[in-house]
Amino acid sequence: MTNSNAPSKHLFSKFSFAMGNFGHAAFYGALSNYFIVYVTSVMFVGVSSRIADKLIGLITGLIVLIRILEIFINPLLGNIVDNTHSRWGKFKPWILSGTIISSVLLIALFAGLFGLIKVNWILYAIVFVIVFVVMDIFYSFSDVSYWGMVPALSEDSAERGVYTSLGTFTGAIGWNGLTIIVVPVVTYFTYLTTSKHEQGAPGWFAFAVIISLLAIVCATLVTIGTHEKDNLLRRSAQQKTTIKDVISALAHNDQLLWTCLAYFMYSLANTITTGVLYYFFKFVLGKPGTYWIVGMAAMIISFCTSPLYPVLNRFIPRKWLYTLGMVCMMIAYLIFIFFHDNLTLLVIGLVLYYFTFAQLVSILTMTDSIEYGQLKNGERNEAVILSIRPLIDNLTGAFSNGLVGYIAIAAGMTGAATAADMTAKNIATFNSPAFYIPFALSILSLVIFLTKVKLSEKAHAEIVDELTLKLAAGQSNLTDDQPTNSKPASTKVFAPVDGNLIPMDQVKVNGQPFPGTGFAIRPSDGHIYAPFDGRIVFTFSSKHLIGLVSDQGLEAIIHIGIDTVNLNGQGFVSHYSDGQTIQAGDLLMDFDRELINQNHYDDTVIMFFTKPQQLLPLASINERPINHGDLIEQVQNK
């Protein structure tokens, strides 16, 4: 009997997970962007400027230090989460408890620790350090658990992509939505308390309460609406990444290193400018009430760029999309510096500023560097490489927070200061680190990417082809597994697809016969099935190549089509996850033969064995029609 409620449960699970990041991103935005604004503008009103500047310096310095230490702390927190065993699973307890504790402490911070500064500023400083550190640790617990939960929600990689996309989408709403509501909310609640139309301490406290309650409600929804799956796949496929792993991956992968450096320059410029735009509207333009325009522009453009990117990338290489985005960003900086008095031009500048594909291009290039590193160093550091981009964001966020605090103090934008108090010198002091330095960083980012990053789509396709040929020729292995006994083992290999069986040497690559030991099938449909009992070792990001190992230790590759790596995964739908145990006949992959043929590629499916020197000679392949599940060969180890 089928479960009629299953589709609705899946939809509610996706909705619940997505809402989790809505509150999560709003909380992080309040902490990373607007807490500094609160600290520099109203927290120390009534305190002598000498003590206030010391405490602002202490707070901004502490935030920088904590963000840097997160690089070392987060793997430890992840290890604690991994070792959690409860009736609610390993992630939900930390998502909910981490959010509740960090939210309560955020409220205390936005309350100025309830007037402790007026009792004893030294005691205030000590308590602040303790509260902030504890709050940041529990926020990190929630953050690590939330994104770490994705593999526990589904074994299907396509469905995982849906969860991730939905979380990213709602996160953009939560993050950019703050920019729209922060001034109206803070002003309104300040007015209710003081009858003054300004952004005062009561308004900031109310803002923190609202965002904290939102975060708790959304975290509760995640714990109620999602279901962690406990299975062998999860237990066997978890990986832990250390700082040593990250450093090793950077040191031995020059294309990853250059991409990371270019992205670091972009991210630092972006986080600095995003952090000071509130000050820009309040103190330079004297229009804090129009600050919502920033959030609206960011939200609209972020909704457009993600779906637009894959469409444009079909016709425009990544390198030029990166260039387009960075040039738009540079033009925006020129508008911010020279034409900010014109509101129309300023809006255009904001649109151009957020219209950048730098993050998307960088993530995809870093992903491609996995195969580059594998070809160059013989190692495939997937988890390490994919953890570097968040690490860079943490670093640039740390530097940005410190610089924003410095800018506020150096430009006199603290305490009860207003736009009327700003002199030409104050504005010049503000513009240099807020716009001139980020403008220079954006230029450096583009120069580095254009001159040093050679890992284009075409180069990646060539790397994948070279890796495939090395595997086929037996020059590299899928695993480091060693035989556990000396007895010969045999594996029954069944046809993975319907079609016409042919010898592998009939398949041509660059005019030469495909090397190695195995067979090929010219398919009559687009379904790939498991050829034996075993497990999935890995899948290339383009999905056209699947690495498997049988229960008897036979290593094999299923290679779907020739030059199909250039499709970048289009037309391929996988029904498994790397590390998954499989049985002969399990459906592994659907592929679009029509799309392959429309792009003038060969759809021949090749299966070859990566350790031919360890195998007894195979029987010759006679060309004939075949169905998936038909026995092709009983492959015998020596």
Describe this structure in words.
The protein is an alpha+beta fold and 638 residues long. The protein folds into three domains: 11-229, MFS general substrate transporter like domains (Growth Hormone, Chain: A, Up-down Bundle), CATH 1.20.1250; 241-455, MFS general substrate transporter like domains (Growth Hormone, Chain: A); 481-636, Glucose Permease (Domain IIA), CATH 2.70.70.10. It is built from 20 helices and 15 strands. The chain has an eight-stranded antiparallel sheet with strand order 11-7-8-9-13-5-2-14. A three-stranded antiparallel sheet has the order 6-12-10, with no helix packed on it. A two-stranded antiparallel sheet has the order 1-15. The longest helix is centred in the N-terminal third of the chain and has 38 residues, at 6-43. Mean pLDDT is 80; it is low at 1-6 and 231-239. Its main location: cytoplasm. In the N-terminal section; belongs to the sodium:galactoside symporter (TC 2.A.2) family. This is Lactose transport protein.
Attribute tags:
3-stranded antiparallel β-sheet, Growth Hormone, Chain: A, elongated, 20 helices, Glucose Permease (Domain IIA), 8-stranded antiparallel β-sheet, 638 residues, 3 domains, alpha+beta
Sequence-ordered SSE layout with sheet pairings:
Elements: H1 6-43, H2 49-82, H3 92-110, H4 112-115, H5 121-148, H6 150-153, H7 157-194, H8 201-225, H9 232-237, H10 243-251, H11 254-284, H12 292-313, H13 318-338, H14 343-354, H15 358-377, H16 382-386, H17 388-410, H18 424-452, H19 457-472, E1 490-494, E2 499-503, E3 508-509, E4 512-513, E5 517-523, E6 527-529, E7 534-539, E8 545-550, E9 555-562, E10 572-574, E11 581-582, E12 587-591, H20 593-598, E13 602-609, E14 624-626, E15 631-636
Antiparallel strand pairs: 1-15, 2-5, 2-14, 3-4, 5-13, 6-12, 7-8, 7-11, 8-9, 9-13, 10-12
Helix pairs in contact: 1-3, 1-7, 1-8, 1-11, 1-17, 2-5, 2-17, 3-5, 3-8, 7-8, 7-12, 11-15, 11-17, 11-18, 12-14, 13-14, 13-18, 15-19, 17-18
